[in-house]
User: Fold Membrane-associated oxidoreductase from Nonomuraea thailandensis.
Amino acid sequence: MITEDLSEPERALWEAFPAARPVDAPGSCVRAEVVAGLLLGARERLAGQTPGLRLSGARITGRLDLSYAEVQVPLIMTGCDFEEAPVFTGARTGLVDLAASRLPGLRAADAVFGGGLRLEGCLIEGPLQLGGAHVSGRLDLSGAAIHADPAVQADGLIVDRDLLCANAVIDGGMRVAAARIGATMILDGARVGRSDSYGLAADGIVVDGGLSCGHGFRSYGELSVQDARVGHRCAFSGAHLSNPGGIALHAERLHVEGGLLLNEGFAAEGEVLLRGARVSGALSFAHAALVNPGGRALNAPLMEIGGGLRATPGFTATGEVFLDSTQVRGSVNVDGGKLSNPGATALSLRRLGATGRLSCGEGFSADGEVLLINARVEGSLAFHGAALSNPGARALTLWEVIVGGAVDCCEGFTATGALSIRNSQVSATLCLAEATIDGDLHLRGVEAASLKIGPETVLLRAVDLRHTRVGVLDDVPGRWPAQLLINGFTYDSLEAPLPVRERLDWLAKEPYHPQPYEQLATVYRRHGDEEAARDVLLAKQRRRRAGQRLGPRLWGYLQDWTVGYGYRPFRAALWLAALLLIGTIVFTVHRPPAFKPAEAPPFNAFLYTLDLLLPIIGFGQETAFGPRGVQQWLAAALITAGWTLATTILAGLTRALSRQ
Assistant:
């Protein structure tokens, strides 16, 4: 290079290069070919000095083309204005620092930057091409503004240390698919993407440290980190993602070794897709707002969460929250959450597995169905204080659910719509105390340690308890509605047995079935109240009689009047005593004549009457004396009454003994 052709700022740069002295040339023009010449050995080195190019404030004319070059000295050109996009394609360099410069773009595909690449605060008005590049130090785009579509093309990028994009404006898509970041990737406060394109495409990226897209981060278009792997925490705290009608966050099969934070003001317009993601730590949606009307606000089936799922406080979702087949080691807490998907499913938890509790209480509300099917929750299931609404359909569905603790729908729980619990197992109490349910209550095939209906429980529609089994029934009979189905409902004991009349009114709410009466009688016997048990069984026979034909019904009335179907044996004794007294008096006054006076024993009016009343036992009086006239009709009546009393007593005793 002929030094006489150099301009004054170029000559100053030429002289400063061997000792890497800085040259400040604000507004001066420096040719790109002079810069390239210095970097490629046009200036001899001086003994004992380390060369380097340090230029600031200059305007670089022409194209700086270092394609496939070996640059062994640092390149520091800060605050410079490049006329054309620099080219580093395939180059191998040391540190390249272009901070605060303006560039029409930067082409550095497959380049190797040995000491890092610094583009902090740059204005880049063209694509930044880093596909396949390797930055052995830090890649710094903090505060940079890049305007192009796509703005950053860096698929396959390798950064040995940090990738810093804090507060950057990336006006266009940023592609870093299959990139490898050795430390952290920071996009806090950055703005990425355009509404008509993708935002951040980081499919298959590996970040050995943490990934942070929080504290004011904005994404327009789809942000995709599917199949990505993050070695520590992945944080979107305070981020806003916007892709209405599409996918705002695409994180299928994302693997995070620490926690995944979509909290503290996180907002997404569009679907948050976490299907098949694995999070070793906690997943947090505290103070998050997800909006995808008519679709899935959170689509997270088949997830594995190692540290619990927390969506409280302040979590809101417009659209379905879908967590089917998700496995959580720890608890799922949505206390105070607000879910809205009217006329459809608000929260879907099919095949959920949780080693802790599932809590949707303390102000939780859902406009739409809350659904758990084939789920297993090792702790309690809490809906205390929740407000569920799905008019004309099911508000809460628990089918084939196994709960290791209680199901708590107490303390102000309200449901507008049906509450359906079927074929489920509850290890502790199924509590509906202080609940208000404006819809059918279906508890079919449920097993629970106890069922609690309190004095402030309001059940406005039909209740179905068929084939449900509880250990303790803790209820207030008057709180049950008029429409009640309890055939097949079994319970081992009553928390408060109460007067039998109240219990019979409870049984009378259902069309007649024998089982509910027999069940209640059995429980009264367990409580040691035999009289109450007999009252219940007598009431059962009376209700049974009401549905019979005329003949059996009349026979039933006779059994009731005489011996109370065998449950009132003292009545038979009274009838026998009365008839015995009447007969003794009548036959004492008017003794019947003997059939064979010479052979007849002495007449005894008492034994004669007893002989007539008892159809099997004989005292020799009936066969020896024959009444005449009115006495004959009286004898016939006594014989008939005796057979009737004996038959009804035998039937009643047989029935009573069979129940014992």
Observations:
- The chain has nine helices and 63 strands.
- The CA atoms of residues 308 and 480 lie 38 Å apart.
- The first strand starts at residue 22 and ends at 24.
- The longest helix spans residues 630-659.
